[in-house]
Amino acid sequence: MADSSDSLTPIYKRLFETYRDDILQRRLQPGQRVDSINEIQCKHRVARETAKRVLRLLAAEGYIVQRRGKGSFVADLGPKRRIWGLVFPFYSVQYEDLILEVSNQAGRLGRELRHFCDYNNYEEEMRLVGIMLQERYEAVVVIPTMDESRTWEFYSKLSPRDSPVVLLDHTMTCNSFRFVVQSYDLGVTRAVHYLLERKPGGVAFVENEVWVGRNMVLELMRGTYLDILRRKRPDFEPVILPRGSAVQADDLRRRGVSALFCCDDISAIQAIGRLREQGAGVPRDFSVASYGNTDLSRFFTPPISSVDPRNAEMAAILAEILCTGEPDAAPARQERVVLPELVVRGT
Q1: What radius of gyration do the chain's Cα atoms show?
Q2: CB-based contacts of 275, cutoff 8 Å, min separation 6
Q3: Which of 65, 156, 213, 267 has its CA 20 to 30 A from that of 297?
Q4: 3 state SS of 195
């Protein structure tokens, strides 16, 4: 069933958005011919004036050029601007730290960084990337949405004439693009092993349900946690909590839990706060470790043991990739993996 809001949108505007999205998502490439007035009329069963209005609007917005006697064509790409665009899937303190590090690298090289949230929507990710490519940003950096299989075809259609696109922080999709990623499974492994060595009981995994949509990173972290427990504590029934505020000390004790691994620093702070509220001490009764190593983990009392994703190193490698290579050459596959480290503190 069509969205009821569609009926309130004029047909010419809907058609404009359809052609615009085809251009932004590279289904129509620069220089490629666009449907004529007659073809729009026949294909979409609209009046001639509506078809003309669609093409006029596309031309006015700079998406196409109209050549008398030849037709309409997707606008050629202009000179690149000294701007890096960064698209990220959701707001988190860890991504805030990573964006800051990328911004520092961009500033060091005399570039402006502009960042945008796609709210873990793969269609919005493609739309934002398409706009940046069309507006000739010098480079586009993407922390992918959590279902990358939906965007693979879009990225595979990009031309060497497009600005370079680099995927940052994580990727589970294999293609020919450039990646700067961290080994989340190694970070989780180091943290959970450390917690298991500290106390004889089991480890609970605290997620963050605010991370919307299908979250492949969270799935990877959860899978690594479960795999470690199967090998190291085969008699322990895994405990997965949806958020830090769901922690109940008595229930954890009953289930044999003596430590918590939290998927981010905010969840760790929530969990520690709940434990204190219920009379449990950290690390006296429960040990806690988190993922992120942001200011929150360093400045909390007691300071939280946390996995450092090495955001500054990822940002430096990203800048190196963007500043090397031939600007119009096809992107050679480059996968640079950063190895997280567990920083042990007072929890």
Answers
A1: 25
A2: 247, 249, 281, 282, 285, 286
A3: 213
A4: helix
Q: Is the pTM of this model over 0.85?
A: no
Calculate the dihedral angle through the C-alpha atoms of 233, 236, 239, 244, rounding to the nearest 10 degrees.
-60
**Domain count within the chain:** 3
- Report the C-alpha gap between 112 and 225 in whole angstroms: 39
pLDDT in tens, 238-292: 999 999 999 999 999 999 999 999 999 999 999 999 999 999 999 999 999 999 9
CB 333 within 8 A of CB 177: yes
- What does each C-alpha distance from 11 to 14, 20, 65 come to in angstroms? 5, 14, 22
What's the CATH code of the domain at 42? 1.10.10.10
Establish if 346 belongs to a structural domain. no
Give Dmax over CA atoms of the chain in angstroms.
81
| Amino acid making up residue 317 | I
Do residues 288 and 260 make contact, with C-beta atoms less than 8 angstroms apart?
Answer: yes
Q: Are residues 119 and 146 in the same domain?
A: yes
Q: Which two tokens stand for residue 228?
A: 């470690």
- 138 inside domain: yes
CA dist., res. 104 & res. 275, Å (int): 37
d(CA 287, CA 290): 11
117 and 254 belong to one structural domain: no
pLDDT tens digit string along 20-64?
888 887 788 888 899 999 999 999 999 999 998 999 889 888 888
Are residues 127 and 268 both part of a single domain?
A: no
Closest Cα partner for 86 from 38, 42, 137? 137
Q: Please give the residue range of the domain that contains residue 60.
A: 4-74
Domain CATH code at residue 114: 3.40.50.2300
* Token pair listed for 156: 């595979």
Closest to 158 (Cα-Cα) out of 27, 327, 60? 27
